[in-house]
Amino acid sequence: MSQTYVTGFPRIGEKRELKFALEEYWAGKTDFEALKAVAKTLRNRHWNYQKERHIDFISCNDFSLYDIMLDTTVMLGAIPPRFENIDDKTDRYFAMARGDDDHAAMEMTKWFNTNYHYIVPELHANMNFSHVNISKIAEEFIEAKAQGVHPKINLVGPLTFIFLSNAVDGSDLFNLFDAVVTAYAKVLYAISSLGENIVVQFDEPLFAKTLEPKFLSLLKIAYERLGVVSSNLKIAVVTYFDRANEAVEILGNCPIWGIGLDFVYGEENLDALLHVNGKMLIAGVIDGRNVWKNNVSKTYNLLEKIGEKIDPKQIILSTSCSLLHVPFSTQFEEKLTPEVKSRLSFALEKLEELEQINTLWEKKEKPEISACTQKVPSLKSSAIAYTRSAYATRFALQQKALNLPLFPTTTIGSFPQTKETRAVRNAFKKGEITREAYEASLKESIKKCVELQEALGLDVLVHGEFERNDMVEYFGELLEGFAFSENGWVQSYGSRCVKPPLLYGSVNRKQPLSVDWIVYAQSLTDKPMKGMLTGPVTILNWSFVRNDIPKSEVAFEVARAIAEEVDELQRHDIKIIQVDEAAFKEGYPLREEKIKAYEKWAVESFKASIGIAWDQTQIHTHMCYSNFNDIIDTIERMDADVITIETSRSGNKLLKVFQKANYKAQIGPGVYDIHSPRVPSVEEMSEQIKTFLQVLPKEQLWINPDCGLKTRGWSETRAALTNMIKAVHLAR
Ligand code: GLN
Ligand code: ZN
Description:
- By secondary structure, the chain is α/β, with parallel strands linked by helices.
- The protein contains 24 helices and 22 strands.
- The strands form six sheets. Strands 1-12-11-10-9-8-6-2 form an eight-stranded parallel sheet. A five-stranded parallel sheet has the order 17-19-20-21-22.
- Strand 11 (280-286), helix 10 (296-309) and strand 12 (315-319) form a beta-alpha-beta unit.
- Helix 1 packs antiparallel against helix 2 (32-52), helix 7 (177-192) packs parallel to helix 8 (213-226) and helix 8 runs parallel beside helix 9.
- 47% of the residues are buried.
- The structure holds glutamine and zinc ion (ZN).
């Protein structure tokens, strides 16, 4: 009889209860006891849901008031010294997460290739990890016991912990390995006194990446040691997000109880089964990070393949990763069409799916091939011709059409989104004001924004994006093939949640997406107005994408819709169009051998979205990061005329990559950081321009902020842009 296992469960709550409790606590409206009470209620409720679905392995310590990496930092006694002056543990915890008046917050970054952000541990060479502390774990464990759950205990694994950390003193993270493993051994020893036969799950997603052999040797040392701390513990090492074949070869020979593998995003794990070597196999077969109903017959076939190599008694059926990455339940969705709703499965529904496949598997009841969700014909890449001439030809034509000065100035698209802007949009969405009133108010904002840009003396203007709440959601709402849940929230970081669009069907552009706004904005000025669109790769990377056809095909459908918009804009005499690919890099696979395939469809679909542009139409793109080392060839192949990027915090170090690659097109490296309200001085930006010119020919350089201004206030925006323009005049 096989068993079921859930890697981890969402903690934010079915109605984001944790978010609201945290924010009330932070605002000083409630005390910590009240926050703790909400947390406890949520944990109990979440355990109950899993109990109802007869899940055999239910986690504790998957809950967190902010982030599990931060909790691990606390557990290991790895508090950065700069926070040691805060005595109150709770104040210190939240200061580490969010900063306070005297402390900058710890850094936060994306958890592998998900949209979840973790707090990056700050380690240094002489940290001794002598104060390990399992009080949070013990509390949750005892709580679960009282609920009749004998929980497994989730811990971030030592290798993933160390190598996702920052060594703030510049020391080598490898040197900390011994100390960290010793601390984990102490943690295990303490845990072993909590009860009998406790399963401890070590999350080691690091091993789904392409790694150097030295990591694997450390894996061996770590688990040979941790596996024998107590005979009272069953150690499971769980990997996810991709294949982990190399790690399995080593873990199969470690004194551990179980190995967790993701067969949804790493089907190649099937080739590693020989090395499981009698351990329990925690088989991740239910997709933990996408929202579509499980294809039962496909999963059954997968299990049959696993069953050929592993004794069924040793197989535990599991989610592919923690359910943290999907929304809570579809049961609160009242507005989705039955067509869409019936295809969805969020965390609670996935528990049912786990139970369902387990029952079928146990009874050896092979499901009929399910009447597959209706397939829609999609446009093949060949259908979109890329007809643009070589860059040099385009450059000449564009110069003639645009007549821009040396060091053209522009912004990335959005201008400050104030409370008022958002209030008007919300009122319109709720039907409280008419469309006419809403549009009039947007036109007013656009007009003011254009006037400001003219007054500042910018060369290429934007309309300001006041009609957009979010750069993906806005387009999704206008395109056919997207749906929006009411309550499909996924934790992004701390109390922050996102509600990704559901890209469920054939994507079609039934109406113009931005033309009216851009044409209106252009009518207000003689300067070129830049059209502003979001690219296909970013739209896909920030949505839940249907999985019944290949992603590349979905990307081309989106690309075709964007291309139609590009064409209509240029036919309305818009001479510059920006197609943002803010999330291009986020979508990169964890495994090197999969990168080529990603780059292929990503570049091709981007090109499909701009291929329709005339040679004299100038295509810009924007990317929200700066590390182009590995991907410069790919960026080149995208063939944009101008790329704006985020290098404002690194001088020209990162620009050198472009120089080395002999990159020919134009670049706007971002002269100042928009992520802070600080107004940079003219001198500072002049210096920036000088450093840029050390590596870039002057004809290639654009001057702009490093990202959109929507999170900034008007006064600092005005001041910063004024200084930017002054610096450009000096440079000219
Ligand atoms: N055009 C968008 C803006 O300015 C780009 C945002 C982004 O890069 N995330 O807001
Ligand atoms: Zn950006």
